[in-house]
Structure formats: structure tokens, C-alpha cells
């Protein structure tokens, strides 16, 4: 039978506010009660034994001996069971605790009734002392027990009611003045005890509640601070870890005891063609592409693989516990393939690729900084030699870095005016057998390193921000040569991507041209596709400014980059220069011939001049003629040669192209 169904008990519980105490409060009450329960039993047993002893001989044996022994045995058993269960008390659920507290309440009620009945039953036996002893036993024991039940208000009130009410009534009715006084005292003390108990219990409940709310506030604070730190470590656009978290994890990857077995790799990923998408379709499209790329990269992350967004279209990669390089290559390939899948934006299909540079610990660097720097270098290499693929930093790269370092040092200390010079190579119209212009090509003779090819020093100048000064020195030389020349030859001058990217640098070049006295329309500026793609909007502005000045614009190395028709169409171009890689095997390679033919057609329909670079043999000239090419440049017509030789400043006097074109012509310039 569920004792809580008894209305009195239920009312008592609800009166005491414990029909539904909070779980936290129940647990605290349980803990406090658990500590005091043994004391309660000890008081009860010792006091009972004392009373039993004083009544042995006067009261019947069953009452003075058997009943107290049975009651004390029940108490001892209860105590033993409780103590045994105590060990598991921390594993109890809230429901189990509530159930145990209910059982305890019922037991206290039952034992209270039994002990009170026993005490009152003993009263008629013995002398006056023995009777007073019974009264004393009952009152002092109930006070002791109620104190032990201080934290369990319901049990304390229940026990007070069960003992004090019958006790007071019983002794009030004895008509013995002493006992009546004891009853009255007991009642008073009980009332005072209940009042103190209620106020103490309220404070206890409040304390528990404030501790609970403090803990809840602390938990909330912890949650907020965790949320904060995860926000501070996540990239909001892609949901990937951000730069801060990436470098945090990278720095934590210090080699442990057996560095040979624990290898890790650092990677830098860059999207090829992302800027173009941003420029052509707008930033919303760019964001969408980044989001999608982030999603694809997140899908490839794992317990040993961290992929993070470092900023812009650059992502970082960390691979822990790497076992072999093949694993890295497979992962890199999977990333490249994932990034290469088409992206859809408002019905348009956008395509781009991702290049990855990787460095493996310890071969590729021994500190986190070194590894990242080398991965970045490998990326630079991937972007220039293996776009859309992976490059792992190697010894070869290391020696290249060293070489670049030497070149940079020499370049920084070079007297550019003195050490730099220009060579000129003719550009020829094979139909008329005329030189139509010259390409100016930079030459550097360093007193430390000797002759350094432009393919190297231009790159180094770009990386070390010396390019603007270098371009200015070279343009100055070109303009002086053009001004001093006997004939008004046209000159093609190469510009770096960085020259286009800096409005200030460009402004200085324009002002040099204006001041030089050379007609701007004698100048053609050659820019590569990659220079334009890196920052399309800015490059477009720069080229427009040069065009407005009156100069011509030529797109260099065409076919090696990523130019789309859309891109070409939006630039103020005059010429396209077909990269020499298509010409080397033009006689035998049908594919190369098809490409050149279609570029020639494209130029014709866009009304652009088409220049073929790298023509080395008469046979190549012949094939190219048949494909409709008219303007060519290459060793076959003339190697680049110095303009400032002892025989004067006019480079044109050196070339007699009639020999090469097979067309009689005495005119050597346009
Ligand atoms: P580029 O603009 O494509 O220049 C043409 C390169 O092809 C030159 O190499 C030239 O010597 C070479 N060349 C010409 N005809 C032939 C041929 O028939 N066969 C072969 N195999 N090569 C031929 P160079 O002078 O070593 O210049 C290399 C690159 O350095 C240039 O490529 C250009 O990108 C850069 N560069 C040169 N001078 C300057 C400069 O003043 N400023 C800037 N920014 N870049 C320059
Ligand atoms: Ca060029
Ligand atoms: Ca070229």
C-alpha cells in the first residue's frame, strides 16, 4: 500500500512543502540526514535500553525486555542496511533518493508510534522515579531525534506530532501536578522547537537554492565562454576552424619522444581562378563559392585532419600521425578533386581549382613556422608550375630558396642603373618582311653573381618588392634609347603584375613617359594573363590608364594561363602574343597547330593583332604562315641584342630581316 495515499501523511508532506522539493534540495537533505541517522539510532537505542533496565522487575518481561529488544533490533537492522547502502549513495538517481526519503518518512512514523506506545505502556509500572524516568525518556529522546532530523522537515514535524501530542495529552490526564508540568513544558519546548525548525529549514532550503542558482550561473558562464571561444576559433562564412585555431593547433604539434614515428604535415591551399569569379560575378558569388568549398573541405576533415580557412581564398591543412607520403598524396588529390567539382551560382556553372603546397615534418621543416613557410613556398611553386595540383616541399625547393635568397641579396645591393641593361629583339611582319617593333628584355650583370636571367631576377624582385624600382630603371633606359634612336622604332616593354596592381607605381611610370618626350603610341606594354587575373578590376583600370595615354597593350604568354573569352573581351587589348610553348613542335603536333589556328581566328574576330613568339626555324615560319600568322618573333629573326653597344644607340641598325623572311626588303622599320 502506498502510504502517501493516506490523507494525513500527504497533508503533512504538503504542509511541510516537501511533496515536491527540488531535486537539488532532496539530495542535500538526503546527504545531511545520512550523516545524522546513525546518531539518531544511537540516542534511541541507548535511551530505550536505559528505560528498559529501570523497569525490569516491575513491568512484565515481555514489555520490559522483549518489546524493547525487538524495537532495538529493528533499529539496528535499519541502521546496518542504511550503512551498507551508504557506499552507493553517490550513484543514486534523483528518483531513487526521493523513494528512499519516502520510505524513511514512513519508517520514522511507524517507529515513532511504536516507541511512544511502548513508553506510555510502561508508565503504570514502577515507582514515581520510574514514571518520571518514562516522561524524561520520551521528552529528551524526541528532542534529540528531532534535532537529528533538522534538515528533513517533514520527518521532524511528523515525529514531533506523533510523540508530543499523545505525550502531552497522556500526562495532562494523569492529574499528577509534576507530570502535568512536564507535559506543559514539553508542549512549550515542542512549539519552540517547531518554530526554530521551520526557520532553520527555510534558511537551509534558501542556502541550497542559492548554491544551485550559483552553480547554474557558473554553468551558463562556462557555456557562454565556450561558445565565445568556439566563435573566436571558427570562420563565420565557411564554418571551418579559422586562422587563429589553425596556428594554435599547428603550434601544439610539437614532436614527441619518438619523432621518427610521428610525422605530420602542414599544407596551404589556394583557389585558382577565385579572384576572377569575384571580379566577374561579384562578391556574393565569391562568398557562395567559398562557402561551398568550405563545406567540401569540412567533409574531408577528420580526427587526424584539420582543414581551416586562413583568409580570403586561402585554406590551411594539418595532418597528424602521418604514416607515409602516399597517404598525403591521396588526401591532396581528394582535396583537389573536391575543389574542382563545378560550383553553381544563380544557374551559372563556375569552375575553379585548388593548388596545394605541403611540407612534411621533419624533412620539410623542423619548427611550425618553418613548416608553414615551406608549405607556402611549395604552394607558390604549385601555382606557377602545377596549378590545380599538389607540390610537396623538397630539397630542390630548398636549394631554390637559397638561390633566390642569394639573388635577393645581390639585387638589394645592386646599382641598378649600372648593372641593368636592355636587350632588344625584333618583332617581324613576315608578309611585308618588316620589323614592326622590338621587345625590350631586361639583362642583369651582377658583379657578385655574374649574368642572372630575367626569368629569375624578375621573380625575386617581385617577391622582395623591388620590382617597382626595377621597372622604373628599365623603363627609363628604354625611353632614353627610344628618344636617342635615329629612327622612331616601336618598343614593347614588359610590365609585372605588381606594376599593374599598384596605382602609385603606375602613376610614376605614366609621368616618366609624359616627361620623356617619346610619343606614347610608340610603346606597347606587355602583360601576362596571370598578372591580369590576379586582380582583374585593378589590372583593367591600369591598362585603361595606359591606353588613354596612347600606348598599346599586348597580352603576353597567351595560352598558358586561365584567360576566358569574357576576360579578354573586357580588357583594352591591341595584341595577343601566343606563347612559345605551342610553337616548339608546331610542325609535328596537330593539337598545337589547332590551338594556334583558333587563336589566330579569335584575334581576327576580335580585331586584335596576333604575335607568334619563339619562332626558331624556317620550317616553323612556313607552317605558321599557312595557319594565317603574319607577325612573329624568335631566334630565327634575331636574338635579343644590346642597344647600347659602341656602334651607337640605335638597335635597328643591327637587323637585316630580309634574309630570314625570304622577302627582299631594305626597309627595316615601321
Ligand atoms: P617574355 O616576355 O615571354 O620574353 C620572351 C622570352 O623569350 C625572352 O626571354 C626571349 O629571350 C625568349 N625568346 C625569344 N625568342 C625565342 C626563341 O626563338 N626561342 C626561345 N627558346 N626563346 C626565345 P628572356 O629575355 O630570358 O626573358 C624571360 C622573361 O623574363 C620574359 O618573357 C619576361 O616575362 C621577363 N622579362 C624580361 N624582361 C623583363 C622586363 O624588363 N620586365 C619584366 N617585368 N619582365 C621581363
Ligand atoms: Ca614579353
Ligand atoms: Ca612571352
UniProtKB/TrEMBL annotation:
<keyword id="KW-1133">Transmembrane helix</keyword>
<keyword id="KW-0472">Membrane</keyword>
<feature type="transmembrane region" description="Helical">
    <location>
        <begin position="179"/>
        <end position="201"/>
    </location>
</feature>
<dbReference type="Pfam" id="PF00990">
    <property type="entry name" value="GGDEF"/>
</dbReference>
<feature type="transmembrane region" description="Helical">
    <location>
        <begin position="129"/>
        <end position="149"/>
    </location>
</feature>
<feature type="transmembrane region" description="Helical">
    <location>
        <begin position="104"/>
        <end position="123"/>
    </location>
</feature>
<feature type="transmembrane region" description="Helical">
    <location>
        <begin position="343"/>
        <end position="361"/>
    </location>
</feature>
<dbReference type="InterPro" id="IPR050706">
    <property type="entry name" value="Cyclic-di-GMP_PDE-like"/>
</dbReference>
<dbReference type="InterPro" id="IPR035919">
    <property type="entry name" value="EAL_sf"/>
</dbReference>
<dbReference type="InterPro" id="IPR001633">
    <property type="entry name" value="EAL_dom"/>
</dbReference>
<protein>
    <submittedName>
        <fullName>EAL domain-containing protein</fullName>
    </submittedName>
</protein>
<dbReference type="Pfam" id="PF00563">
    <property type="entry name" value="EAL"/>
</dbReference>
<dbReference type="InterPro" id="IPR000160">
    <property type="entry name" value="GGDEF_dom"/>
</dbReference>
<keyword id="KW-0812">Transmembrane</keyword>
<feature type="domain" description="GGDEF">
    <location>
        <begin position="262"/>
        <end position="395"/>
    </location>
</feature>
<feature type="transmembrane region" description="Helical">
    <location>
        <begin position="156"/>
        <end position="173"/>
    </location>
</feature>
<dbReference type="InterPro" id="IPR043128">
    <property type="entry name" value="Rev_trsase/Diguanyl_cyclase"/>
</dbReference>
<feature type="domain" description="EAL">
    <location>
        <begin position="404"/>
        <end position="654"/>
    </location>
</feature>
<dbReference type="InterPro" id="IPR029787">
    <property type="entry name" value="Nucleotide_cyclase"/>
</dbReference>
<feature type="transmembrane region" description="Helical">
    <location>
        <begin position="62"/>
        <end position="83"/>
    </location>
</feature>
<feature type="transmembrane region" description="Helical">
    <location>
        <begin position="37"/>
        <end position="56"/>
    </location>
</feature>
